[in-house]
Amino acid sequence: MLRYVLTRLLGAAVMAVLAILVVFLIANTVPGDPVLAQLGDLAASNPDTVMEWRAKWGLDLPLWERYGLFLWGVLHGDLGISIASQRPVLADIAQYAPATIELATIAFVVALAVGIPLGIAAAVRRDSWVDAAARVISLVGVSSPTFWLAFIMLAIFYGGLQIAPGPGRLDPIAFPPEEVTGLFLIDSLLAGDWDTFHDTAAHLVLPSIVLAAATIGLITRTTRAAMLEAMQQDYVRVSRAKGLRERFIILRHVLPNALIPVVTLGGIAYANLLAGAVMTETVFSWPGLGRYTFRSAAALDFPAIMGITLVVSVSTLLVNLLVDLSYAALDPRVRR
Amino acid sequence: MREIPVLEVKDLRTVFLTDAGPVRAVDGVSFTVMPGETLGIVGESGSGKSVTALSLLRLLEEPARIVGGSIRFQGRDLLAMDQEALRALRGDRISMVFQDPMTGLNPVVRILRQLTEHMVAHGRATPAEAKSRAISLLGRMGITAPERSAARFPHEFSGGMRQRVMLGIGFANDPALLIADEPTTALDVTIQAQILDLLRRLNGEFGTAIVLISHDLGVIADVCRRVAVMYAGEVVEEAGTAAVLADPRHPYAWALVNAVPRIGTPLGTDRRLVAIEGAPPDPLALPAGCRFAPRCPFRIARCETEHPPLAEVAPGRLARCWVTQAGEVLPKAGVAGFVGTARIPVATQPILSVRGLEKRFPLPRESLLAPRRVVHAVNGIDLDVARGETLGVVGESGCGKSTLARLITRIHAPSAGSIVFDGQEIGQASAAEIRPLRRRLQMVFQDPYASLNPRMRVGDILAEPLIAHGLIGRGAAARERVTELLATVGLNPAWATRCPHEFSGGQRQRISIARALALQPDMILADEPISALDVNIQAQILNLMLDLQQRMGLTYLFIAHDLAVVRHLCDRVAVLYLGKVMELAPSAELFARPLHPYSSVLISAVPGRAGRILLQGEPPSTLAKPTGCPFRGRCPIARPICETPPPLVEHAPGCFAACHFPGEFAPPPSP
């Protein structure tokens, strides 16, 4: 077991180094000149200003040298200075990431909490109304465009029924809790501030449902398919011949086997939620990485883009590592 | 006072509701099992025996449904019970063991929980009591270190061990009745012998009544006093097992008994087996009269029109046959078999000569740091095959017999050693050099469902090798040759335009043989060509292979695990263990006087015969290269000298054995 974990960790480290190289090459070979994006027309027409500006940001150095500096910086936790915000990229990311992590994690929990039971029910009561309903929910979730769903939800629950709060992480007049983790739910709990906790939770409801919609569909379908396959296995018939209750068979024999493919999908889905909240964040004015990404890309802010890409790839690697570890927990055949 | 039967089945009817109409899978089956009794149910695939077994516990799944009859367990009607009452019986008073132990255990649940959960669920034990009972059960099932084994997962167990666990699960609540559906079909003979022995012992110790379902009468004879023979959803004969084997009273039972060569019967002069032609009737359109009549060699006019009842033909013997009910006696089949000594090869130039053949398969690394592991499949085999003879190759799974065939046909390249085919070294030859030889050396595979491309028409399958070797053009010439080939293997030439899925297993195997024959080879390597087939079809295919050999002078290398068939068909036999030849001798000699202890053990493990030597344990892993005598770990007469590998030496004319003490291990008493 320990060896399995160590092997996976080593693999993840190798992948991270490769990811950094890829990130760097992509950022430095795409067409687009940050000079033109950052400097005004007047300044850009002055060669001296341009030279000075390029020297300041190290853009005059050869590619390999810049890579060396970048790698050195990454190893020291230094992702460079954002051209747009003039602040360390890491500080920017640290500021925006918690909002996204909070949103994505809640959305992920919602997706699992809805998708897995729905998938189980659809498989157990195959071809019943439950199955049909699950199919419709999945289809709607997967095929609705996020921005459309976001607007509809806001229009109905905020604009129409007025039972949900508007965009943002908190009411405009509320103060954020004292920062410990940056995750408002946790910070407000730590501060014992129930009003803020409640406010945060209420603000998370709509965006997390919108963000989770597509994932719910995927998880429901995968769970259903995996359950149906596991229910065909001989050990299920053996369990019936043992006189076990159907409920026990489903939960203790079928489900643990069916969860294995769901975990694979879950890992990919969580990584996607972390990196793919741009639409949702924009509509819900969510001060998260998605919006930061969008702004940095528009400004051709290379240090920021590289920083974000790096963080996203490393977090994807971490999620995959978690997936590998959960395999080991779920499936004894994987452990060595 | 009359004892209440454990199980009383009356007129059971189970149908499959298909789009084409109800398929009567079980059609009026009745039998009774008394406490502690053993009943076997035998029949071909599709005869309804497994559906009967599932019906007994009402474990059928859609679209199967029980539509009639009654199943009384200790006097209570199972068909009238609600689900809850039924569930209370399942796994408690009645338990069931299924065919495939590899899939019957949940891979992600520890053995212990799989053994204890139904003890706890039925309120027979607290979790702590269940645990200690489970561990003692594992011990009784013959699993070493039961305490440690209980904490393991199924994938850490071999097939034989898993079937022991399944039996442990079956006996956990000390049931009154155990239903075992082909419990040993997926296992090797020596392991099968262990499991059957265990079943017999458990029947004695626990007093549990057993219903054993199998396609193999020998297996049933090993465990069961009585047997019911099923055909097309009906019981056609029911009697003592020994009586049926000796003197069957229904023509179908007669065919079953005589289709299989018995290892105990003396060899005669004719190798052809009794094979009845045709196939079981279409269950959607059952004949009005006797269902076996269309295939029956003894039918009379009445059989075509009137459906016979199951009636007593002799005291304690029931048969569903107008002929035997009228007092007729079915003839004894001519003593089938052949004493092969007449054709023992002399020292002529062999067609195939193998020396020092080795094959290692490296496994992928488990991780970056793990050492590379190697499967030692074949570890130095020497063999000669004479022109026109049939050499049998036998051994348990993992002994390297299939690898040997794949090396000789150069599907794999050997790691070391030489293969000389008709004077030409092919062991290390390049693909281009071998190509012209391929047409002279053909292969027939085990699984006729997997070895024919489902998207090709049979005519194209047969013409393909001819065209590939440039022997024939497309068009009329190819069609003519295909017609000829189909006729040769006994198939209707008009079927050339059909696809493989339109054929039965036996017909497909005929197509496989026709494909091998297409190139007019000198030698055919047949890798378990009949093991996927029903016994009657086996007999048909074996007869076909014999005919073809006589007509075309073919040489066969016949790989099989069924020793009775090998004894019957082969001139000489090579016994393989862990990739080495243990013994190589003329068939008659080998079976009469085995020189190697492993040969003795294998022969005695064949079901349906007395005087069994039970071998402990299972073959060791092929991941380690065997040292010394590979068999010494399980050998009943191993001594320190066996650490040095015994050479394969001729001990009697034509009889080779690799053993330091040839012939010393007492052969099992010949029945």
- At the third CATH level, what is the topology name of the domain at 340-440 and 519-657 in chain B? Rossmann fold
Q: How much of the polypeptide of chain B forms β-strand, as a percent range?
A: 15-25%
**Looking at CATH, which topology of the domain at 95-298 in chain A would you report?**
MetI-like fold
Q: Please state the structural category of chain B.
A: alpha/beta
Protein name (chain A): ABC transporter permease
Main location (chain A): membrane
Transmembrane segments (chain A): 9-27, 103-124, 136-161, 200-219, 254-279, 304-330
Family (chain A): Belongs to the binding-protein-dependent transport system permease family.
The gist of it:
The complex is a heterodimer of chains A (336) and B (671). Chain A has helices at residues 2-29, 34-38, 41-44, 47-56, 63-75, 89-124, 129-143, 146-160, 184-190, 194-231, 234-241, 246-275, 278-283, 289-298, 302-330. By secondary structure, chain A is an all-alpha fold.
Notes on the structure:
The complex is a heterodimer of chains A (336) and B (671). By secondary structure, chain A is an all-alpha fold. Helix content of chain A is 76%, strand content 0%. Chain A contains 15 helices and no strands. In chain A, helix 9 crosses helix 10. Chain B is of the alpha/beta class. Among the domains of chain B are: 67 residues, no CATH class; 91 residues, no CATH class; 240 residues, Rossmann fold. Helices cover 30% and strands 23% of the residues of chain B. Chain B has 22 helices and 26 strands.
